[in-house]
Design brief:
alpha+beta, four-stranded antiparallel beta sheet, 1 helix
């Protein structure tokens, strides 16, 4: 005898276990993606800050090179003192040689986030 298939009892589709497992896997995947995106955003902020500090340091060194030799001296600008850069501070340390024919200038740029960049140049008479 042959069994008849009742079209009203069609059992095609997904079971509850399959749906729960697929939702779990999708959730784990989305959480991993969110963690990666968060890390990328944080690294981009660090990179942008380092680029800003490097550019500010280069600009400061160029300004110092344009000064007359006798005007090159130590200085420090605190947070909020550099126009358009309120989250950064800079300091220049000038060290003349024994004969006072050249000066080594070190510029330190620091961010409010705790990062710092140091650059040096030499200024001669």
């Amino acid at each position: 005898m042959r069994r008849r298939i009742d079209p009203r009892r069609n059992e095609a589709g997904f079971s509850l276990t399959e749906v729960v497992m697929s939702l779990f896997l999708v959730t784990v995947g989305l959480m991993s993606l969110a963690a990666v995106v968060s890390t990328i955003a944080q690294r981009q902020n660090v990179s942008q800050s380092l680029t800003t500090m490097t550019n500010l340091g280069n600009t400061t060194l160029e300004e110092i090179k344009d000064l007359p030799y006798d005007s090159v001296a130590n200085f420090e600008d605190g947070y909020g003192m550099i126009p358009n850069f309120p989250d950064y501070k800079r300091r220049a340390i000038v060290t003349p040689d024994e004969l006072d024919t050249l000066k080594v200038v070190e510029v330190l740029i620091s961010s409010a986030g705790g990062m710092a960049v140091s650059m040096q140049t030499v200024v001669t008479r």
